[in-house]
Amino acid sequence: MMQQAKKKIGLKGLTLEELREYFSSIGQPQYRGDQVFNWIYNHLARDFGEMKNLSKELRTNLDETCSLNSLELITTQKSDSTGTQKFLFATTDNRKIESVLIPEKERNTLCISTQVGCPLDCKFCATGLMGYKRNLTAGEIVDQYLFTAREIGKEKITNIVYMGMGEPLLNFASTLSTISIFTNELNKGLSRNRITISTAGIPYKIKELADSGHRVKLAFSLHSAFDEIRNKIMPINRKYPLKENVDALKYYSKKTGTRITFEYVMLSGLNDRDDDIKALTKLCSSLPSKVNVIPFNSIKHMNPSGISAELEPTPMHEILRFVEKLRNNNITVMIRNTQGDDIAAACGQLAVKY
Ligand code: SAH
Prior knowledge:
Layout: E1 9-10, H1 16-25, H2 31-41, H3 56-65, E2 66-67, E3 71-78, E4 85-91, E5 96-103, E6 108-111, E7 115-117, H4 126-129, E8 132-135, H5 138-152, E9 159-162, H6 172-183, E10 195-199, H7 203-211, E11 217-221, H8 227-233, H9 236-239, H10 242-256, E12 260-266, H11 274-285, E13 289-295, H12 307-310, H13 316-328, E14 333-335
Parallel strand pairs: 1-2, 6-9, 9-10, 10-11, 11-12, 12-13, 13-14
Antiparallel strand pairs: 3-4, 4-5, 5-6, 7-8
Helix pairs in contact: 1-2, 5-6, 7-10
The protein binds S-adenosyl-L-homocysteine.
């Protein structure tokens, strides 16, 4: 019988505690876990050979039994107008995912994916239209950060947003591990208030995230303050209606002492009417929050059908009027810059054809 090659243990994506446990389990002192963590996340080491404070024997042993590879970088594309950069990766089972790096004056934000595709099927989102393949492992999620961090070198990634492909709260365990890695005090440069999880609304997971103690920022993809409209454009709302989500968001805000960001993609005639301003004002006034208004980015590259094909962006002058009225009602509102539209890297445009 042929001897099967033993599967290597992936060390990327293990939390510091898990790394310590791993080294204990192979008869090494726990602090080897801290050393390896430091090599992976601060020195961005690619292989065990670089880890000079480990003995040669241990390095060889790790090389044979463990792996540091989860993703392969396929291509990068850069937007000439904004400098936004899109990274296409392949997983070891040849699934494709994308991440987006958004350089701004005082920060570099990395937008990462948590799933291959997405099961939620939001009608305005290209990722939803490509369907769902599988959850990413914690290793595959942190690797998006490690690749891009190497790419920009000295500049450094300052902010991470979980707003790429997929619904982070439906890949809860891996998402939590990666938050724990990014916010660990041994990991220099990132802190919890520069990390944002974005969700379409899974109330019991929002509460679980609050109870996890990580206190990262939470963004909620609202898009309408009416269940009737949300049901149409976000099928998940039929399972978890607004009231349940708002209760969970209030719980989150209270428990973590953070303000909720409501994301609001402007869709002509659907959620930009005067009634929407009223409902949105009422909702926002009921908890510590702000609104992030997002111009609708085209998903025509997906050849959409049904309601997805009928969606139209609210014209910019109407967005400005909408925002002004909200501000007059004492609501804090930001308009999200569209970045990377020319390379299909803007919000909601990420999708990989199979
Ligand atoms: N599943 C999570 C994270 C991914 S979506 C969530 O739903 O929040 C990240 C953000 O991009 C969300 O606010 C989403 O609503 C927004 N988005 C999706 N499609 C968009 C589009 N076509 N134009 C602009 N924003 C879009």
